[in-house]
Design a protein that fits this description.
InterPro entries: ABC-Tungstate_binding, PBP_domain. This is Tungstate transport system substrate-binding protein. 45% of the residues lie in helices and 23% in strands. The protein contains 11 helices and 12 strands. The protein starts with a helix and ends with a strand.
Length: 271
């Protein structure tokens, strides 16, 4: 009886060790990306398909574009997926990233209270919409986190020749989800990507008020971290993932992804 117990224990230990070894040996890729791709549900939709095709597990770090690029610059991740073209161009120009690829696009929208106190919905362009928010001193919640959305918002204020020192402006240093929640609570305006809006809108006391301006175009890229700077990163795995995203299958999956019956992203790697 004692010998049987010892054998059983040894078998359990062997199985446990084998499982631990197997888990440790699972190939992994570290991806820094924006909160918009995370909150929209796109990655939850794509990554199981990629794992089935490649065997790789992708560890996702969702943050603002500025922080995602900084993680790439520091060699803390293997690749980035972001949406701030000027910052991405600098990231590559300075040698931090290689093989930048167009991936997909969606758009930004302006949301706010149903009463629309600044009358943004009737403005001829998004710059005029922003100007009316400032002139009316209506609350505006800015992400203030150096994300792609924050960079786009600041770009619109700049093009509108308006300083963000009016009394209604609030910079909160938060992701898109918390920013939308705060705007809802304060009955304020905010700029958001369409994907996160669709994921959150049923929980918010806000409506979409402005869309369609060319200035609100929102392109995404995928960029590999430079392996010459960080030889220890998983460059091979990152390239396999980048290659897969721009294949006909990856692009078709991006186009097929919907939330509440609406497509969130348009794949454009081959344009």
């Amino acid at each position: 009886m004692k010998k049987l117990f010892v054998r059983l224990m040894a078998s359990c230990l062997l199985l446990s060790s084998s499982y631990a070894l197997s888990a440790a040996d699972t190939p992994r890729i570290r991806l820094a990306t924006t909160t918009s791709t995370y909150h929209s549900g796109l990655l939850d939709y794509l990554l199981p398909e990629f794992k089935k095709d490649s065997g790789y597990t992708v560890d996702v770090i969702a943050t603002g574009t500025g922080k995602a690029l900084k993680m790439g610059e520091n060699g803390d991740v293997d690749l980035v997926m972001t949406h701030a073209p000027e910052a991405e161009a600098l990231f590559v120009e300075q040698g931090h990233g290689v093989l930048p690829r167009k991936l997909m696009y969606n758009d930004f929208i302006l949301v706010g209270p149903k009463t629309d106190p600044a009358h943004v919905a009737t403005q001829p362009n998004v710059q005029q919409a922003f100007a009316h928010i400032a002139a009316s001193q209506t609350p505006f919640i800015s992400r203030g986190d150096d994300s792609g959305t924050h960079k786009k918002e600041l770009n619109i204020w700049e093009k509108s020749q308006i300083k963000t020192d009016f009394s209604g402006y609030r910079s909160v240093g938060q992701g898109m989800g918390p920013t939308l929640n705060m705007a809802s609570e304060m009955q304020a305006y905010t700029l958001t990507d369409r994907g996160t809006w669709l994921a959150y809108q049923t929980k918010l006391d806000l409506v979409m008020l402005y869309e369609g301006d060319a200035l609100l175009f929102n392109p995404y890229q995928v960029i590999l971290v430079n392996p010459e700077r960080y030889p220890s990163i998983n460059y091979q795995g990152a390239k396999i993932f980048s290659d897969w995203l721009v294949t006909s299958k990856g692009q078709a999956l991006i186009n097929a992804f919907q939330l509440q019956g609406q497509a969130l992203f348009v794949a454009n790697a081959n344009e």
